[in-house]
Design goal:
- There is one protein chain.
- The chain is an alpha/beta fold and 286 residues long.
- The chain has eleven helices and six strands.
- Strands 3-2-1-4-5-6 form a six-stranded mixed sheet, with helices on one face.
- It is elongated, with a radius of gyration of 24 Å.
- It starts with a helix and ends with a strand.
């Protein structure tokens, strides 16, 4: 970290570098993404009109073609004028002055405008503003339906409650969960170990400065659980978690070249060494 502090003056840059996950083993580095000339523009001008500098604010808000889309939105957004403000400041202003529906509409429209821009750059296809607005309202409708479903599923239902089950005789069960702390730019991991009688044998909790991604936190948690089991000298182990994505990733034998693949691969190796059984909410996966 001393070298990082010497090379980078801004605290924000140092914090971002410090959050990059590093392998805890001697695994070799892998190239996960390769930038290509097709993905990088060779000039800073507007992609479509090639006149003004294309900042994020210009592409999503100020460009005439973007304004054509915003002019078909709700009246609150149509009448909004934000001069000399970047997109974050515009978002914050809308969040302060408008309701949740307008905020959701703003986010959806901005996403559709960005996708339209990418379609034009990479596929030479340009969508009419009506198509963009129509796709936005379809997505907003789906979002509302999803919110209704979540509200209904959050109601207590005794028939859907899964009770914790003790492991077989001479086995230990490790339950873990991960949480993302967005204010402190880190993740927290909690683990509890119980024997076949249901008695708590050991607990572990750990925090780590890391990118605030739930999937990365769950994968890091899985690695910590496996390491904890190995430190305790456990050989007959059942690990139970509630992240389907992480459990399925741990089942795969090949390397996964994504942002949490390093943790998954290391946890997978440790699980194989001690004959670990993975479970998802009481359902055996291995």
């Amino acid at each position: 970290m001393e070298l990082v502090e010497q090379l980078f003056d801004k605290d924000e840059e140092e914090d971002i570098i410090a959050q990059i996950p590093i392998s805890s083993s001697s695994s070799s580095d892998k190239m996960i993404w390769k930038g290509t000339s097709q993905k990088i523009v060779d000039h800073p001008k507007c992609t479509i009109f090639n006149l003004e500098e294309e900042t994020t604010t210009h592409a999503l808000w100020e460009c005439e073609l973007a304004r054509d889309v915003w002019s078909q939105c709700s009246k609150s957004l149509q009448k909004s004028h934000f001069s000399q403000m970047n997109m974050l400041e515009i978002f914050e202003a809308i969040a302060r002055t408008m309701d949740t529906n307008c905020l959701q509409e703003f986010a959806m429209v901005a996403k559709q405008i960005w996708w339209r821009r990418n379609d034009f750059i990479f596929n030479q296809m340009f969508k009419h503003p009506n198509v963009v607005v129509s796709a936005t309202y379809q997505n907003l409708k789906m979002l509302k339906e999803l919110e209704v479903q979540r509200s209904a599923s959050s109601r207590p239902n005794n028939s859907s409650i899964i009770e914790w089950q003790a492991p077989p005789m001479h086995f230990h069960k490790l339950n873990w969960d991960a949480v993302v702390d967005r204010t402190r730019a880190g993740v927290g991991i909690g683990t509890v170990v119980r024997n076949y009688e249901g008695k708590i044998v050991a607990t572990m909790r750990r925090s780590q400065c890391m990118f605030r991604l739930p999937s990365l936190a769950e994968a890091y948690g899985a690695l910590q659980v496996v390491s904890f089991a190995m430190d305790l000298g456990l050989t007959k182990v059942i690990v139970e978690g509630d992240s389907l994505q992480t459990i399925q990733a741990l089942k795969k034998e090949e390397d996964q070249l994504n942002y949490f693949g390093m943790f998954v691969s290391e946890a997978n190796l440790g699980a194989l060494l001690i004959g670990m059984l993975l479970m998802l909410k009481g359902v055996a996966m291995w």
